[in-house]
Amino acid sequence: MNNEENDEVIVDDVEENNEEDWNAEEKPAKADKPKRTPQEELDYFEGRASRLRKQLGQKEEKVEPAKPTRTDKPNELDYGQLALLRTEGVKGSDELALFKEIMAETGKDVLGVLDSNYFKARLTDFRENQASTDAIPKGKGRSGQSSVTDVDIAVAKFKESGVLPTDFATKTKVVNAMMEAERKPDFAFKK
Q1: What number of H helices and E strands is found in the chain?
Q2: Residue of 163, 169, 131 lying closest to 150 (CA atoms)
Q3: Per-residue pLDDT reduced to its tens digit, 140-152
Q4: Which of 45, 68, 81, 184 can bridge 77 by disulfide, Cβ–Cβ 3.0-4.6 Å?
């Protein structure tokens, strides 16, 4: 019997421990104060610092709120928006400038401008004009008509009327051009 009583005592201890754990779960936890937002925290600590300055007799410093490092301008695009434009086919600084211009005109966001028919039409027109401009050769090696000079006009008038210009320099150039034209045959025969 002694063994049974010892066993019961052990069982009773275990039951008491279980009851304590069970009661501990039922007890409501301490009510936590609601957390403050970051702005509320800032206001609280600024007020506290102000009161401490008064107690110490220091002048109160005006603290300006920190300015954000990134400026939120409507015309400025971040890297994500630039990547989106590139995947949609808007490439180059000229097309990007057109996009920003239309974005400022319409007041729409990036996706709104990309989906608008107005932007699509203007982009197509811009690309056609750009292709035309790029098709024209530039620089010294550009082929095309040579310009008509004053000497050419004077030579044509001389052939028409037979009268040389009164200006000595132009008269000399006309005579030299006529002599050069006589030396060169109009066509060359192949032998």
Answers
A1: 8, 0
A2: 169
A3: 666 556 666 788 8
A4: 81
